[in-house]
Specification:
The complex is a heteropentamer, with two copies of chain A, one copy of chain B and two copies of chain C.
Chain A: H1 2-23, H2 25-44, H3 49-80, H4 84-90, H5 95-124, H6 132-157, H7 163-174, H8 176-190, H9 197-223
Chain B: H1 3-12, H2 22-45, E1 49-52, E2 58-62, H3 68-95, H4 98-130, H5 139-159, H6 164-191, H7 210-265
Antiparallel strand pairs in B: 1-2
Helix pairs in contact in B: 1-7, 2-7, 3-4, 3-6, 3-7, 4-5, 4-7, 5-6
Chain C: E1 2-4, E2 7-10, E3 12-16, E4 22-26, H1 33-41, E5 52-53, E6 56-57, H2 62-66, E7 69-72, H3 84-94, H4 99-108, H5 125-137, E8 143-147, H6 155-170, E9 174-178, H7 182-186, E10 191-196, E11 199-202, E12 218-219
Parallel strand pairs in C: 3-11, 4-9, 4-10, 7-8, 8-9
Antiparallel strand pairs in C: 1-2, 3-12, 5-6, 10-11
Classes of the chains: A mainly alpha, B mainly alpha, C alpha/beta.
The structure holds protoporphyrin IX containing FE, adenosine-5'-triphosphate (2 copies) and magnesium ion (2 copies).
């Protein structure tokens, strides 16, 4: 099974990313959406520069999560639109590969988003980066965590007819640890609070690993519709 | 520019494969020359911004003040671009011709470029003068950002592969709403006087030196020439794109007609 | 010419439909039948050329056309979360029809009883299509545009559709209908028009179709 | 035309609300979504009670806006799902009635959401209400503003294939004034900052009026597909 | 029994399909034909009773069934944003088929050329359905489950589908096919099974269908 799973995961990820490239939802819309949300926060926080700098990491991650909801929702909407999800079930592709492929595609999109949005935060909220290594590792680990948990929950709600609204409700509480961990790690990296960044990074990596394994294992059961 | 990518298919079918003409060449050289003069004026003639306070301290923006000659004209050009988009959109909704649609699209794109330039130069300028890249408390900065975002959204709609007429009509409505931002940005410093670090209208209140004022006016003139030059090119690019589209349609039309004929002769219709 | 995106779905149309006539559009997949029907409904625009439907110019007065037609398309135009009766009732109210019209339509399409109170999202493909037809029947349109009206229907429902078309034609309505099941429709003795590669040709033996007798019912 | 427009608007609003009642997206999902977002904010702001109380109005309104995006998106998705939007065009219903009806349905949902979420904020963020009249009026005016602008923009992006992600990008900057105005009005009502609540209420009402009129006028042109 | 939500879509099934056989499901709208096909594909579950397909128990081994069948349903299973060639290619790769298989399938369904590079979202209804069939052909399944395979297709494509079914049957594959166009299929001389109100009855004259001869191909 070894290589076949990787080959199939790759196939699925490639398909998902290609669909995204074609529809250009990511670049043209999710990124501007994320930037706009950042701006909204600035308004909501009463444009208090000091507060903004302090809360920049938290706001960054809330924004990433909200954008991730869109990306995950689309990843499944595309399959459901005209019954491709049924056909994936019938294709004989190992569910682990489907899970891995979809999670990979989401993670790639999230990383791109984080890079662009991160640049926005550094400029708009006037923060300075102290520890680049931590920043990059935390960004990758958090993306992996959100992507794995998101793919699992995306599959859970897929086909229930109202997934675009159900997904946030289920997923957001679950990824709260990612939000907290990534926020702390970034606070450390930005030097705004003396959090133990690397410890929090451990949490993020653990989260991603757990959801990766759990997702891969339970995906088959999830997909086995009806 | 996109002229390069479009030229091959354009020449193939005999449309002029360039967006330049005598007028644009003149405008181009004028821009370059004007820019050279502007640089000279800004660095050699305009003195650096210093004032001596009563205590004898030297304060001011020093060399940073020279950023004004990029920042302020950019802002004006962004207004111009979006304003033109507004007018062209109105005209489109009235007459429904592609010409106005292309005009709206072209000027919005240029507006966004200069809008971003305003934000960037403003930020750079803010670093030495306000000690911050970005100040959320400043209404002008924030409203300017919103304005640019609205038009980025506008361009996002324009880029969607949808029926041309649908897209044109919908983006025209977005532009109408979006253009309100020009007024808001322009008046923001006066409406929210106490909530801004940003300069209020210093320009015509004659609070600045004559050299600075002259150079600034000169930079407006250069900016306008630059704008005209860019707009001509961008509009012609849009026009060429539409021509290519037209040709593609013609090609597809011929193929489709052949399909019809082939079916007539080849296939037995029950 | 009608463009879908940049694709010339209809390239040349020369069609003349007299009121009360029953017209059958035939042609291979992708010929442009659906597009032609949507054009007649005022849902597509003419990039070049001009056309009239029921006396209205298709370039200028599409809104006038729209309210006089009923289009049965590939999609059903129903709300999954509402029941059949609610859906048909909604479209009936939108068209100013009465409760009784709704009941009649449901009866006619064998949707009365349990099915009437079933959410549309839970219907089978054919039942759903029947519900869609019922929601059009209540409109009593002047021009029926039917895109593959028999697709997915069982024998009984096919007969219902046939009698519906006959009834509409008898009541003076115009019917334009696209289908691949030509035999089925033969009993109605329609004028056959063939669409191929975006070209529309009045065919089927009655050559008088080429000479526009009635200028304001011409689609080109 | 007078009464017919109202009758039709009522018909459309009734249909939209009935679909929402059936699918229960509003109650079962949008509300929990909104509450979850509030909780996320609490995490993001590092659970600093004082900060939370100060920023409660802003966070409340950001949350309402995000939830509004979902409600508006669904309002149009329901029509587009199986070609009902085409049929609305063919129904002969005055576009003004369609606009009014859809905006009304969205506004009703927003008001319900505001009430539930408001209770949540009062409990979670420990704020006290000083001026009830202002609170209610601002809530209603903001709902009207978001609903009218949202319906206009919802129609703008409907059917462009990628509306669920395009809507936020376009709408959020436009409703930024509502966010600011409503936040200020609530700050006044909560007594957290001495904003001129009633003046901001004027802004909200003006916004709703302008978008109501502009939306009603331009809706016909928008719907005139292709 | 098979429940859809709380609705007993299939109430009693007694069906026995020998390998290589061609079975035609007929019955009115809402009878349960689609549900039966989905059950055979392993996409629905049995609330009570038991069934076997291709030797696998439908309650226990649905996964094994799934990878051996190809189901052409009411929905096409294609991605709107990808081209026809990309879609067929994707499903081919997922099934381990080669590029050549893809080309052959496209050729067979008259989708080569311009259409192959068209995004599926821009196809006409019939073209789309053909693309869906092409994406199934590449799988070379052991059991074909076809739900109204002719719906929306033009005359030529209907013939293609017929020859496809004949070819599959000749190659030893089993074909179960639901349709309302009984005449069309008559030339294939299938065994006719009628489904009414969720009850499945082997009909069409071959009464030996009632006595299960081969225990492991029984669906109940
Ligand atoms: C990112 C930050 C900034 C943005 C977005 C911004 C935006 C703008 C805009 C839109 C205008 C045109 C105003 C009008 O006439 O309507 C403008 C003008 C101007 N800006 Fe900025 N600005 C920024 C930062 C700065 C900074 C840091 C300074 C200098 C300390 C500055 C100095 C000026 C001056 C002197 C004018 C001309 C004022 C007038 O006569 O109206 N700006 N800016
Ligand atoms: N959105 C679109 N963009 C581009 N081309 C399209 C679009 N929709 C349809 N087409 C093309 O227009 C042509 C005509 O399509 P149409 O749906 O009218 O065909 P049809 O005659 O109804 O076919 P069928 O019998 O398969 O339903 C087809 O070749 C199709 O590929
Ligand atoms: N999701 C669902 N929930 C509840 N009932 C359903 C659902 N889907 C279908 N049904 C019901 O199950 C029955 C069988 O449906 P099915 O789709 O199998 O019929 P069919 O024989 O394929 O009909 P058709 O010829 O119209 O396609 C129908 O009466 C239908 O109302
Ligand atoms: Mg068609
Ligand atoms: Mg069926």
């Amino acid at each position: 099974m070894g290589t076949a799973v990787f080959r199939d995961a790759w196939l699925i990820a490639g398909k998902d990313l290609r669909v995204e490239m074609r529809s250009r939802v990511g670049l043209n819309q999710i990124v501007p959406f994320a930037v706009t949300v950042l701006v909204l926060f600035a308004f909501a926080l009463d444009t208090d520069q000091e507060a903004l700098r302090t809360y920049a990491p938290g706001l960054f991650w809330v924004t990433v999560l909200l954008a991730a909801l869109l990306a995950i929702g689309r990843s499944f909407a595309v399959d459901l639109a005209d019954g491709a999800s049924d056909r994936l079930l019938l294709s004989g592709i190992d569910p682990i590969a489907v899970f891995g492929g979809k999670a990979l595609a989401v993670a790639v999109q999230l990383v791109v988003l984080e890079v662009l949005l991160g640049a926005g935060v550094v400029l708009l909220f006037d923060v300075t980066v102290h520890r680049y290594g931590l920043l990059v590792c935390a960004g990758l680990a958090a993306a992996a965590g959100v992507a794995t948990a998101g793919t699992l929950y995306g599959a859970l709600v897929a086909g229930l007819g109202v997934s675009e609204t159900l997904l946030p409700v289920l997923l957001l509480p679950v990824v709260a640890p990612v939000l907290i961990g990534a926020t702390r790690a970034f606070q450390d990296a930005f030097g705004v609070a003396g959090a133990e960044g690397w410890a929090w990074l451990g949490l993020l990596a653990g989260f991603a690993a757990i959801y990766g394994v759990f997702g891969a294992l339970s995906y088959g059961a999830l997909l086995e519709e009806a | 520019m996109s002229t390069a990518t479009t030229s091959s298919s354009a020449t193939r079918v005999g449309v002029p494969a360039t967006t330049s003409s005598r007028a644009t060449k003149v405008l181009g050289w004028l821009t370059l020359a004007g820019f050279a003069v502007l640089v000279a004026l800004a660095f050699a003639w305009v003195p650096e911004d210093t004032r001596i306070t009563e205590q004898g301290d030297v304060v001011g923006q020093f060399d940073a003040v020279r950023l004004m000659f990029v920042h302020v004209p950019s802002a004006i050009l962004a207004y111009t671009g979006f304003g033109l988009t507004f007018l062209a959109s109105l005209a489109y909704l009235r007459w429904r011709t592609d010409w106005w649609d292309m005009m709206a699209h072209s000027s919005a794109e240029i507006g966004v470029v200069f809008g971003v330039l305003t934000l960037v130069t403003g930020s750079i300028w803010g670093r030495p003068t306000w000690q911050t890249w970005w100040e959320w408390g400043d209404v002008r900065q924030v409203t300017a950002l919103v304005m640019v975002l609205v038009f980025i959204g506008y361009l996002a709609v324009r880029r969607i592969p949808a029926e041309a007429a649908v897209k044109a009509r919908r983006s025209a409505v977005i532009a109408l709403v979006g253009a309100v931002n020009i007024v808001i940005v322009n008046r923001s410093v006066d409406w929210w006087e106490n909530r801004t670090l940003h300069q209020q209208s210093t320009l015509f209140a004659r609070k600045i030196r004559d050299e600075t004022l002259f150079t600034l006016s000169f930079s407006f003139a250069v900016g306008m020439v630059l704008f005209a030059w860019l707009l001509l090119h961008r509009f012609r690019t849009a026009y060429l794109e539409s021509q290519i589209e037209e040709l593609e349609v013609q090609e597809a039309l011929e193929e489709r007609r052949a399909e019809a004929d082939g079916a007539d002769h080849g296939r037995e219709q029950p | 010419m009608t463009l879908l995106g940049r694709f010339p779905a209809l390239t040349g149309v020369d069609l003349d439909i007299s009121p009360g006539e029953t017209v059958l559009l035939k042609g291979p997949n992708g010929a442009g039948k659906t597009t032609l029907l949507r054009l007649c409904a005022g849902l597509c625009s003419l990039a070049s050329g001009q056309g009239w439907v029921l006396g209205h110019d298709l370039s200028e007065e599409r809104r006038m056309v729209r309210r006089r037609v009923a289009l049965l398309g590939h999609r059903t135009g129903l709300y999954d979360d509402l029941t059949v009766a609610e859906n048909v009732g909604f479209w009936a109210q939108a068209a100013g029809a009465s409760h009784q019209d709704v009941d009649e339509a449901l009866e006619r399409l064998s949707l009365a009883g349990r099915l009437a109170d079933t959410r549309v999202g839970r219907l089978s493909a054919g039942q759903r299509r029947r519900a869609s037809i019922a929601s059009l029947v209540v409109r009593r349109p002047e021009l029926w545009l039917l895109d593959e009206p028999h697709a997915g229907l069982d024998q009984q429902s096919r007969d219902t559709v046939d009698s519906l078309v006959r009834g509409a034609a008898a009541a003076g309505a115009t019917v334009v209908l696209a289908t691949h099941e030509l035999e089925r429709i033969a009993v109605l003795e329609p004028r056959v028009v063939s669409v191929v590669g975006g070209m529309v040709r009045s065919g089927g033996g009655d050559s008088e179709g080429d000479a526009p007798t009635d200028g304001d019912r011409r689609v080109s």
